Amino acid sequence: MLDQRFGAGTLHVLRAAVREFAAGAGMPPGRADDVMIAVHELAANTVRHGAGTGRLRMWTAARALRFQIEDAGPLEPPGQHRRAGGGGQQAAGTGEADRRAWPLQPGHGLWLTRELADQMNVTAGPGGSRVTAVFTLRPR
User: Which domains can be identified in the chain, with CATH numbers?
Assistant: First the structure.
């Protein structure tokens, strides 16, 4: 099981850990990249629109790689979004100090994960959000 907390400054570390875990679980290289991209997009959403930090849990069960990303809820009032550099935190993918940061493309995280994963479920409420996704492990 992979269990990792993340924030804006650690998204590159999260991506590497996810890619390694997915490959180790038996995902072919292109599919392991799909898992990494889906996790990155959801984690970036958590950093930008959630509390700024989150938690990833990833495991294998029943011939599938499953992951869950959770946050503690919005830092800002509903309908408002944190801007890069505001409030002492940087939005995902905008840190100049992190040359490994990916560009921010607002609105793509959930859509992209739905396209890449075999199953996805979103639960959101005042106490936070949880996204669970499943990637089937296909025989080699």
Answer: 2-76+85-136 (3.30.565.10)
